[in-house]
Design brief:
Layout (H helix, E strand, L loop, with lengths): L1 H41 L2 H53 L4 H11 L3 H10 L11 E6 L2 H5 L2 H12 L12 E6 L11 E3 L2 E3 L4 H10 L2
């Protein structure tokens, strides 16, 4: 009995293996026939000519797209370089004169081959650049959320009363210019303000009086 069972099992495995082998060969033969048929069909001269013509068109199309993309990229890079150079030039002009005048903008447009409108747009966009004559000391009061919550509005009102000007204006003696700015980076010691390159934190009315007295 055990011998017969073993014999039946071995036969069934062989039969399965043989069936799989035959089935696989049939699939391969069918695929080979299909490939031969396709190759014969492609060997026709007309189809080959059409395929070559189509491939040339596609290559030309993709080359055009690549060139167009590269040109756009180079133009974008040139614009970015020009803008960075423009900002450097504007900072230098402001460092010498204290502000950026219309004459200096016109000279810069000729030098860099940039329209005056774009130079004016850049000069008016950035809060650190000024197109009007400024005071000797430029006061910038931070009005970010942390400073606002710690009473920056009261300090702005106090300075406006003390200097008799509003934000964005300059005093008659051209000593002070007052501006409201965004975060200075002293949120832990709010409210804060900046005069030139120096930063003053934890501001009070008494402290502001001392700072303004100390400025010549």
């Amino acid at each position: 009995m055990p011998y017969k069972k073993r014999y039946k099992k071995s036969c069934s495995r062989k039969d399965k293996q043989f069936y799989i082998f035959i089935h696989g060969t049939i699939i391969i033969i069918r695929n080979v026939k299909k490939l031969l048929y396709i190759l014969k069909f492609i060997h026709n001269k007309k189809i080959l000519v059409q395929f070559k013509y189509f491939s040339k068109i596609m290559i030309h199309h993709y080359n055009y797209q690549i060139k167009n993309y590269l040109n756009k990229r180079t133009l974008h890079q040139n614009k970015r370089c020009k803008m960075s150079l423009l900002l450097k030039e504007l900072k230098q002009i402001q460092g010498k004169k204290g502000y950026i005048s219309e004459d200096s903008m016109k000279k810069l447009s000729k030098k860099m081959n940039i329209p005056v409108a774009k130079i004016y747009a850049a000069a008016t966009f950035y809060s650190q650049l000024h197109t009007k004559p400024q005071g000797k000391h430029i006061i910038e009061i931070c009005n970010s959320p942390s400073c606002y919550l710690n009473g920056s509005l009261n300090i702005i009102k106090y300075l406006e009363k003390k200097l008799k000007i509003k934000s964005g204006q300059t005093t008659e003696d051209k000593r002070f210019s007052l501006y409201i700015c965004s975060c200075i980076g002293c949120c832990d010691k709010a409210p804060a303000m900046k005069i030139g390159k120096e930063v003053y934190t934890s501001l009070t009315k008494e402290k502001i009086d001392e700072i303004i007295k100390g400025l010549k």
